[in-house]
Amino acid sequence: xxxxxxxxxxxxxxxxxxxxxxxxxxxxxxxxxxxxADGRERGWSELRAPVAKxxxxxxxxxxxxxxxxxxxxxxxxxxxxxxxxxxxxxFPRLLGALLSAADSDDVGAAVGLADDAPAA
Amino acid sequence: xxxxxxxxxxxxxxxxxxxxxxxxxxxxxxxxxxxxADGRERGWSELRAPVAKxxxxxxxxxxxxxxxxxxxxxxxxxxxxxxxxxxxxxFPRLLGALLSAADSDDVGAAVGLADDAPAA
DNA sequence: CTCCTTGTTCGATGTTCGTAGAACGACGAA
DNA sequence: TTCGTCGTTCTACGAACATCGAACAAGGAG
Lengths: 120, 120
Fold this sequence. Notes:
The structure is a homodimer. The first copy, chain A, is of the alpha+beta class. Chain A has one domain (12-104): Arc Repressor Mutant, subunit A, CATH 1.10.10.10. Chain A contains five helices and five strands; from the N terminus they run ααββαββααβ. The first copy, chain A, has helices at residues 17-23, 27-36, 53-65, 84-90, 94-105, and strands at residues 42-43, 47-48, 69-74, 77-82, 112-113. In chain A, the strands form two sheets. Chain A has a three-stranded antiparallel sheet with strand order 1-4-3, with helices on one face. Chain A has a two-stranded antiparallel ribbon with strand order 2-5. In chain A, strand 3 and strand 4 (77-82) form a beta hairpin. The first copy, chain A, is globular, with a radius of gyration of 14 Å. The A-B interface holds A 16-18, 21-22, 24-27, 30, 90-94, 96-98, 100-102, 104-105, 107 and B 16-18, 21-22, 24-25, 27, 30, 90-94, 96-98, 100-102, 104-105, 107. Chain A binds a DNA duplex through residues 1-7, 26, 28, 44-45, 51-62, 73, 75-78.
């Protein structure tokens, strides 16, 4: 797994609003964030999205580059989690308001968890 | 002024989160929203943005189409205002959190008011 | 009526984005 | 070692987007 060369995790202070909002303006990515909203760390394979795996990898990279998620590697598996603390520190109430709004609109409903994943 | 043929104002219930977030992922548009955040209605000529007038017209249309602003015509002049009530009703706390975040990042600082415009 | 101002629309251009498939590298299992 | 799995990167393509200048239409001012 070519070792994630370029994909850095921005520091908390490097997170910009435009990058965050831009990343969340896509239904798939917002759906992924909704799935991660319970704070639980998820493996790639638990995530279900109606796109090719290369596309999913791309979306997860955009989220990571924007500072919205953190990725951890363990052997060949990768895990993602929401950087809720950093986001709340940087932009108070933004993530909460966004998630509430996403729930009421049911944005990214096509994104979900695999059947064998632990429930929220 | 070809009478704004196609640019409709979506009803409150037609406003979607994705359209709102997508519209606000551009620094110029977010800057415009910041300028309008005081609730005051502004004329086109009061708005200062580092883009050509046709581009400004485009950005204002995107905001209008997303349901973020309302445009009123008076003779040849146009006026914009924020649809704060509708946005707050549709997505509680979202606009406030977004504006606070935009202030802390000083997003769209290049957008402002003309010198002769009434102060905020 | 004749300008002048104002904002929209059109056409064009260059860029970014979402998407997919193929090839690759790293790890684990047999 | 030989596979098979997993995720990334490369490459490519169409769509969407930001931008501008020019042309245009509707009013207002003279």
